[in-house]
Design goal:
Elements lengths: L1 E7 L18 E4 L5 H11 L3 E3 L11 E4 L2 E4 L2 E2 L8 E3 L4 E4 L2 E6 L2 E2 L7 E2 L1 H20 L9 E4 L19 H9 L3 E4 L12 E3 L2 E5 L2 E7 L12 E6 L3
Parallel strand pairs: 1-2, 2-3, 3-7, 9-12, 10-11, 12-13, 13-15
Antiparallel strand pairs: 1-16, 4-5, 5-6, 8-9, 14-15, 16-17
Helix pairs in contact: 2-3
Length: 238
């Protein structure tokens, strides 16, 4: 089992302190809208890899590339504005701590800020994930299942809200069906003191991790027979 600390949207005082070291997790997952130095602190304090997607209140991280000479954007040297040591999995599939993770960041477009997309734009962005997954399956003959789909916003109609800024993305239905993850982990929807209901979509557990959630996940579990990710502890609010 892989021990995972999932965080998003709301900083937790007890995590941004030395007592976080008692958690001893294998992996940190960030679902967006957190200070980047918060993610950096967790990565350093827990000595664990961090994989994240940007939220709608985060800086624009599109177009950055890391090479031997450092970071570039549009072919020019630059400084990476994201969290040092963390991996941005937006529109990518990566492996970390024995888990296979795909990511899709951002929210529905509502005021023209960074990391906001229309339904059509996000559908187009999501095709990068489905094409990459199919390429690994068909060309590289990589049959490993996906463990986690990490998003900032939830799927449309599955844990989202009705106000214009918190409507979910319709493309996540198709992405979840085709990638068949064990778990879809998202933020963006603040529960305001309540414990959000854990939902399912095409066999995947859909979990809102605003604040933080501690999980234990069996790598490579199949949807028809896997033991659902176990929620060890969760907390919402500061």
């Amino acid at each position: 089992m892989v021990s995972v600390l999932a965080v998003s949207d709301e900083t937790i005082e007890s995590l941004w302190s030395p007592q976080v070291k008692s958690l001893g997790v294998d992996l940190i997952l960030g679902a967006g809208d957190l200070p980047f130095d918060y993610l950096e602190y967790l990565t350093d304090a827990l000595n664990a890899p961090c994989v994240f997607v940007p939220g709608n209140h985060d800086a624009d991280l599109t177009g950055y590339s890391a090479g031997r000479a450092g970071w570039t954007r549009a072919g020019l040297p630059t400084t990476w504005p994201g969290p040092v040591g963390a991996v941005n999995v937006d529109r990518r599939i990566v492996s970390a701590a024995g888990l296979r993770i795909a990511g899709l960041g951002g929210s529905i477009r509502y005021n023209g800020g960074p990391n906001q997309w229309t339904q059509r734009q996000q559908r187009r962005r999501s095709r990068t994930l489905t094409r990459t997954f199919a390429w690994h399956r068909n060309v590289r003959k990589d049959s490993r299942p996906l463990d986690i789909l990490l998003t900032h916003s939830p799927p449309l109609g599955v844990g989202d809200d009705t106000d214009p800024a918190h409507i979910g993305f319709d493309c996540l239905d198709e992405v979840t069906r085709r990638l068949a993850p064990q778990l879809l982990l998202h933020g963006h929807i603040h529960p305001h003191g309540a414990t959000p209901e854990d939902l399912t979509l095409h066999g995947a557990a859909v979990i809102n991790t605003v604040g933080y959630t501690l999980l234990e996940i069996e790598p490579g579990g199949q949807r028809t027979e896997f033991e659902a990710p176990r929620i060890v502890r969760r907390r919402h609010g500061t």
